[in-house]
Design a protein that fits this description.
There is one protein chain. Strands 2-4-5-7-6 form a 5-stranded mixed beta sheet. It has a two-stranded antiparallel ribbon with strand order 1-3. By secondary structure, it is of the alpha+beta class. The protein folds into 3 domains: about 160 residues, no CATH class; about 50 residues; about 140 residues, Histidine kinase-like ATPase, C-terminal domain (Heat Shock Protein 90, 2-Layer Sandwich). Helix 7 packs across helix 14. The protein is built from 14 helices and 7 strands. Keywords: Kinase, Membrane, Transferase, Transmembrane, Transmembrane helix, Two-component regulatory system. Pfam families: DUF5931 (PF19354), HATPase_c (PF02518), HisKA_3 (PF07730).
């Protein structure tokens, strides 16, 4: 069953909204306490009482609006800022001398919460507009632009604009991260599809091309066309432009078109393995030995533990498919007479499968060249599978001394983003 990637979106600004809710509650309590402590100094305390009678229910009733950016509309922000500015302008009306000489206003520092809401919602430009309106209200309330008034106004402006700018940067980073995660998920899905194509469609095309060439006549033309389609499909899977299809006149009839990396013809061994894997789809775990056993033959020796090697069914199927891809490479590059050995080891924290052959080995730089030409047997069918399983695939080859592929899969899946990378 195909595994679907899920992109998890985050909200970097949500903690700011929660902090703003707490700030509004605390500053509301502070404004009440500040007014109560100076109650006797007000010439018209009933003005302050009336204002606080509006401020308190307004703050409590609008907590849902400041719990997130969706409900915090521009209409609400305008009304909220109006409440703050009204409190500033009513402060001298309440008859408190300090409200004019530089003391706190009726809403006190609650006003900053209204400005911060504008900053979080709309960024630094909205913050600059709201803080400018509050600054004008402070100058009107005190009747002149004193040093202390200018200091307070500039402080609020700079702080709100800075917070608004940080919010904009955080949102841009969030969008970039979400896009990167989407690209990563799409890339992983592309690699998975490339492995499936390599293990099925390309094998069939290679078989048709080979059989058609052997039969000759009209079958040779069919084989030639299958070879061309295989080359085009490999190029497409590798991410490059598809080559131009050749016309019948480009090659003489019966000319053999050699596939770029034609996999071995599917045989009873590979088919039995796929059947065994299909039987394991309904279980949570699977004995890996049952999936590797069909690979044993006169040219393939399998060594395994005497007890079950249990892995999650999906993991076992992918690991067995990687072993099959390694054996395909042995048949394809080492020849039909080459011998291969499969060693299955059940370690405490991981399962280790080693595939070794007595072929001629791989020349240095050949794998990189093959991957560049769209030959994805090692890059996708082996290393790609192991990377998705959180494991590693190490290939050791010395010219003239054969090739060894070591597949290591942890029994516990690695956390997303920490999966092992092929070495």
């Amino acid at each position: 069953m195909a595994r679907r990637e899920r992109v998890i979106r985050m909200s970097v600004e949500q903690p700011l909204w929660r902090a703003l809710m707490a700030y509004r509650l605390l500053t509301m309590v502070y404004a009440i306490g500040l007014f109560a402590s100076a109650y006797e100094q007000y010439g018209r305390p009933w003005v302050g009482v009336a204002y606080l009678a509006v401020l308190v229910p307004w703050t409590l009733a609008t907590l849902p609006q400041v719990s997130g950016g969706v409900r915090c509309t521009k209409r609400f922000l305008t009304a909220d800022l109006t409440v703050a500015v009204a409190g500033i302008l009513l402060s001298p009306v309440a008859g408190h001398e300090r409200a004019i000489t530089g003391g706190s206003t009726l809403p006190s520092i609650w006003t900053a919460g209204a400005v911060l809401a504008w900053a979080i919602k709309g960024g630094w430009r909205w913050a600059a507009t709201a803080s400018a309106l509050v600054g004008v209200a402070n100058v009107i309330q005190r009747g002149a632009l004193s040093r202390s008034t200018a200091h307070n106004v500039i402080l609020v402006c700079i702080a709100s604009i800075a917070i608004g700018y940080v919010v904009e940067v955080a949102r841009a980073s969030e969008r970039t991260l979400a896009r990167a995660l989407e690209i990563q998920a799409a890339t992983r899905e592309r690699e998975r599809l490339a492995r499936d194509i390599h293990d099925s469609v390309l094998q069939v095309l290679a078989m048709v091309q080979r059989r058609g060439t052997a039969l000759g006549g009209e079958a040779a033309e069919l084989g030639r066309m299958a070879g061309e389609q295989e080359i085009a499909l490999r190029t497409l899977v590798a991410g490059g432009p598809a080559p131009r299809p050749r016309t019948p006149g480009d090659d003489a009839p019966g000319t053999r078109v050699r596939p770029v990396d034609g996999p071995a013809e599917p045989d009873a061994t590979g088919g039995a393995t796929r059947d065994a894997a299909a039987d394991a789809t309904g279980d949570d775990t699977c004995d890996l030995r049952t999936l590797l056993a069909p690979y044993a033959s006169g040219h393939v020796t399998l060594s395994e533990p005497g007890t079950a090697v249990s892995l999650p069914a999906a993991t076992a199927r992918e690991l067995a498919a990687a072993v099959g891809a390694a054996l395909d490479n042995v048949r394809r590059h080492a020849g039909a007479g080459a011998h291969a050995w499969i060693l299955l080891e059940d370690e405490p924290d991981a399962v280790l499968v080693t595939v070794r052959d007595d072929g001629p080995g791989i020349p240095e730089g050949r794998l990189a060249q093959a991957e560049g030409e769209g030959r994805l047997g090692v890059a996708q069918s082996i290393r790609g599978r192991l990377r998705d399983l959180g494991g590693t695939a190490e290939l050791i080859s010395v010219p003239g001394q054969g090739t060894e592929v070591e597949l290591n899969v942890p029994k516990q899946p690695a956390p997303r983003g920490k999966a092992g990378q092929p070495r």
